User: What shape does this take?
Amino acid sequence: MSWGARDRRELEVLHRVALALAHSLEFPAVMDALSRELTHAVERACECTISTWNERADELEVASVYRREGGISEIERGVAYRLVDFPHSRDLLRAAEGHSELRATDLQTTDDVRLMLGSWGWRSWIELPLVVDGRSVGLIELADYRSARTWSWRDRQFCQTIAGQAALAVRNAQMYASLQLRVDRDPLTGLLDHGAFHRQLEAELVRAHAAGEPLIVALIDLDDFKAVNDARGHVAGDRALRRVAEALRTAAPDAPAIGRLGGDEFGLVLRAPDDPAAVAAGLLDEVCSRTGLALSIGAALSSPYDRTGSDVLHRADASLIDAKRSGKRTFRLAV
Amino acid sequence: MARDNGGKSDRYRRELEVLHRIAVTLSRSLSFNEVLALLARELMSAVDRASECALSLWDVENDQLVDIAAYTEHGAPNWPRGEVYAPLDLYPETRAMLEAGAGYREYRITDPTLPVEDREVLEHWGWRSNIELPLVVEGHSVGLIEVADHRSARPWSARDVAFCQTISSQAALAVRNAQLYEDLRQQVDRDPLTELLNHRAFYERLAEELARSERTAEPVAVFVLDLDEFKHLNDTRGHLAGDEALRELATVLRSVCRAGDTAGRLGGDEFGLIMPGAAADVDALAAELVERVRAVTGLSVSAGGTLAAPAERNPMRTVGRADRSMLAAKQTAKRTHRRAA
Assistant: This one.
């Protein structure tokens, strides 16, 4: 019979891996399933690390670590490694194929790497890219704590088969994650939508009360937006709204919430300002000059007596009406 | 004895290979319909005596099954899916099985006790025998799996039944994933008020249609509609009346969509319509749309249309042109109105 016990075991493992990876569409869960299944699939593997590749930052970020003793490790999740220090890994990611292997006893292994392996307690280490649709999305590393012998062709091949099969699940999880990013977002500007902005404001208010620091809540409204829309069409109007969104993001990169509340009205939440009036004035200046559009800002400072986000929003709204009445390109702050 | 062991081991191996192949195949797609079509094909080829596999969805509200996918030994049948309904009051035992979310049923044409409704099903499809089992996702039946034999009415072996059950319970993961994905996609792509595509999804669809039209050289007509005096309506009769008007307009737009057409809400009171293949006079079509909306809802709208230019890639451009043609129509209408007054 040509079907050996090992073939049979490998097929069983592949089947189990396929099912394990289909159990969730959430990216972290898929990564955990993959690191766990790989560790158990390859007999000599003591540990498996999967990291995602951030090509722009030239970094690897740890997505999941599984150890045969101890299971999933939470501590390392999210740790970033600069690829400058691991050029061979970067080469693998760029090539989107092949593997590389480091062994403590290999004469070619430099002292630095030997030290590093020693400090982690690894005797040998194999890595291969996780490739989805022809592009590397991350790196798979398997470590053997006990033996520095060469990794067999069959072990490597098996890892590659599993990684290849996992690509489908990883791609599905990526697609799902990219949809999740869009939920709660205003589709035109990518800012928080009305509901999400309100939820975020409530959460910030709770935090602000606890910290004893006030928030600035600002409502921003375009002057004469209707005129832009009517005179130059909706596409021009949409472009103007997107410019405002971009300017708000740039002007307040640390704002815990920026949303489009509807039509041409935007909302912004800022933490613990020293000089709230100066913050509002600066915001108005920067957004007007970045967009070349005239807008009005109504802002309010939260107080410990605000029970809900609506309380402070009402004051901001009153300020906005006040600002609109007193002319264009102005702000009013209620304290 | 040795031969027997070899046979068992071979069968185990073959089944494992099939199960593995199915698990991988079904994870290729996150589209609900596509996953079910793949499942029908895989089941048909996995079960030796099967000459057809048909899947239907359980429409609990209307107490019926709706055909969704099928595969026969000659390939996918060419009759339309999603249009064949089986009312479950004719098949109470099937309904009970779906409600239980467990078990299976077997039908054989040679069975003298076979109820007449079931015999009709077998005769209609030319099946000599079949088994049916629920497709259970997270404890609830979502549909029915039928595996049929065109040639033989012999009883189905316990092993065949168990194999079908293993495949369907394994497929449930992929079906659930596709459901999750499509639900989320729905949330992301739909305007909650009108349930039409939202701004982003509309532009994405238009970009796809433009790319398709470049390949097929088929024209794409794009229309933009806008409620006249929407602000006035909102201010005088309140936002609820405004919302109701938007919903009515959306309903009319849905009704004019042929298969392949797309309606979307671009924001506020502005709507868009993509009609691939509509090469006729777009201005006349726009005027027709205005009339249709007036006739059905009594609302006054302005509409403008344009044909995508050959090799046009930027959907903003296309919509921009339709927008301008709508604004021009609005101006003309206002002038006419003024003159009339």
Summary: Chain A touches chain B through 31 residues (CB under 8 Å).
